Every structure is written in C-alpha cells, then in structure tokens.
Amino acid sequence: MTFKAKVTQNIPANRLIGLGGIDTEGNREEGWDTVYLITAGLGWIPDLVSTGDLTEGDVVNVTINGKEVWKVEASENVPAGTLVQCDVDGRVKNYHTTDGNHFGFTTHSAQAGEVVEVVRKYGELPKNQTETMSTKTDSKPKQTAKKTTKKKTDKGQEQ
Question: pTM of the entire structure?
C-alpha cells in the first residue's frame, strides 16, 4: 500500500516517525485531507521509519510493506536483545518505564549513532501521542451519571 504524506520537518534517514494530527500546521481544512509526518517523540510508539532523508514541506510517497524489523539510528549504546523506545529525536534508546512505552527489541548491539535492527513489539499509546493524533478540539467530555443499586435482604429490607 502506498499513500502521499506531507513532511512537516526535516527528518534524517533511519528515524522513527509519528503521524501529525489535523492541526499540525494550523490549517484544519488542509489537515482534513493531508497525512502529516512528524518526528516521533520520547516514549511514543512510532508509526513509520524513514528509509532516506525527508525534507520539510515535501510531499512524499509512503509505502507500507509490513516489515517486522526496522533499521533505526541509536541515540545511545544499546545491547543486543534489549527493549528499546523512541527518544526525543526519533532515534532509539534503552527502555526506561519513566520515559514511556517500548516498541521493540534489538537484534544486535549498537553504539550511539549506529543503525540497529529493531523487531517491532508494540504496547499501548501514550496519552501525549494520542492527543497529538486526535481530531477532537478542546471540548470537554460528557459526564455520565453513576448508577447505584440497593441490595435487598431476605426480609425485604434495603441495606
């Protein structure tokens, strides 16, 4: 499958990519019909990986090929067989629970700046990523009334 997407910032090769939301460039009308590519953030579960340098403003063809292993640049030294997560600049780092979710594990060790193969293994989307991808505006969620029931005893009395 292939589709067109707009690159909203310069993204180097072998970086993790997230999808921007409808307001990524401040134009909801354009955003309604445009897929935006942004650098994935710390702890995000990435949507894509760049296979070449992407230039801000370009409209590119994105191909989904179903690869389970991605080649991603490491932001720090990572050992073989360790869980990794997205770092602030779309590179991978060692997994720390305080920094969000992991999205895969390494098949070999790599030094900072080297490309490492990562087998994708997903978890839940972090709240800040969900909010970025949301099409909702600042409206408040509906409040629902809490249902209560009273338990009856043998004698027909309520407790």
Answer: 0.76
Q: Answer for the pair 121, 85: CB distance below 8 angstroms, yes or no.
A: no
Helix (H) or strand (E) holding 28: helix 28-32
Q: What is the DSSP letter of 54?
A: B
CB hemisphere CA count around 21 (13 angstroms): 12
Q: Are 117 and 71 in contact (CB under 8 A)?
A: yes
| In the chain, domain spans | 2-133
CA pair distance 27, 33, nearest whole angstrom: 11
Among residues 130, 111, 134, the alpha carbon closest in space to that of 41 is found at 130
Q: What is the pLDDT of residues 95-132, one digit of tens each?
A: 988 898 889 999 999 999 999 999 998 655 556 654 55
Of 63, 13, 9, 59, the closest CA to residue 38 belongs to: 9
